[in-house]
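To whoever is on call:

I kicked off a structure prediction for a single chain this morning and the downstream step that reads the tokens threw a length-mismatch warning. I double-checked the sequence; it's 554 residues and nothing unusual in it as far as I can see. Pasting both halves so you can look.
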Amino acid sequence: MNRLFRFDLLALFLLLLSDVSFGQLFNEKESQTGNQQNLMQQLQQQQNMQNIKTAVLDGPIDPAEYIVGPGDIYSVNVWISPPVNFQLPVTPEGSIIIPTVGEVHVAGLHLDDAKKKVIADIRKKYIAGDISFTLMTPRVFAVTIKGVVPKEGTFFFQSTNRVDAALATTDSTDYDLLKKKIGQGVSSLGSRRKIVIRHRDGTRGTADLEMYYALRDRRYDPLLQDGDVVIVPRWDSERNFVGIYGAVNDEGVYEYIDGDSLVSMLKMARGLSTTADSNSIEIVRSDKDGSHLTTINCNLALIVSGKQPDIPLHQGDRIVVREQLSLQRDYKVRVEGEVMYPGTYPITKDSTLLSDIVKEAGGFTPFASMELSQIFRRSVSQQDIISDRLESARGGVTPEDSTYFNLETAIRLNRELVVTDFVGLFEKNDESKDVYLRNGDEISIGSKKQTIYVFGQVVHPGHVGFLSGQNYRYYVDKAGGFTDYARDGDIRIIKANTKQWLAPDETTIEPGDYVWVPKEPYHPFAYYMQLYSQVFSVLATIATLAVLVVQLKK
């Protein structure tokens, strides 16, 4: 009996032990399954976040505009305790399969309508709590682009892309630059105002990118849809145009479409500039054969205020927006050298004198030299230098003068010298020597120089202290005298102010002048042989003639 009791206890113990082992094993398997599910959920969330980051958007999606389609991924949330969350794609058949709810067909619906439909079906299962249906990842689909584009074909876009993104993908040309060249041989452009969009369901849409860029109204640049065919027609820029010129922010030639008006075209030209006179706008219109022009005067302020109706435009109209008369300009001059406050100073047009600017600059320093002061002026712009040089050269300059003429022309085009008597104006107080300044003038106030620079064929070229009343020989001697190759008969004095080359007997040496000693040219022995042979040949000819004359007299 005891033995049987012990056997029963042992069997019961083993049975309990087996139950515990199987329970632990079951719990371990259930735990592993739960970890795998958590890992899968994390991976799915990471993938969803990655897809969300790659979406290209130009702002929040308008549910009334966005059309749901296969490939979209939506987040369905039922806010109960605990909350229920699903990441659900739209199937290729156009449905969303919601666990515990069922299949809901949403393809082709606008997003706001799809929200209402999905939420209504979920409420049949979950009565309590709030429900949300949110787009997480837009889909990608194929769109075909045809017409006047650099490359026709089928391209892939997101459902958040618009027509302008499709054309930007196929067209890398500078359209605005080409548009400005209309009338210069460029007339083969694709339309950006009459773009046709064929949808898969047989309906059609249009896009007007010029108006979209002007107004940023998305109606003119609709969203792409699955399987769209975008067709870009040709723009006949020689006839189908409206020109806008004058005080607008982007003047040029624009494509015309029916319904264009003065106000809409001015918006397309990015509006009036700050200098525009809105009361003085003209529409120039030609008749059908182009032989007669009619001018329509417009007051934009009255049109915008509603006191006058907008003016419809015709094909070929030209709009001219005048600027308000303003004499305000950034007129300025620059003062350099020996003044108290060098720098740039504003002036008024044709009414600011040299003496006024010197006062503004604080006057002269003690080291200023009136003899070495000058005013430089640039009357030819950089872009006109080549044209000016060619026009100046067509006057028939002789070959002998061409080198000298080209040199002087280059100096003139770089900066012209304004004839000014600084000594008479500022030292002798002769107001008749004052001059009016012009925009861009450069006033250079020279420094006093107490040296004479001697260079060329001297032993020690350099600065020599100035001594009043001395001639060039004094300064040459101070520079070590002439070298063996000096041509002392052709010495020139170069004036510091005017840079004139003068003979020593034509001027008095002044502080800052230059003494130039030229070099005797070197000639090889053959040169002298040829020279002497020519001289002897001439002499022989003369002697022969003399003998003939004597014989004829006999």
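Update from on-call: the warning came from a stale cache, not from the record. Cleared it. Sanity check on the structure: The first helix runs from residue 2 to 53.
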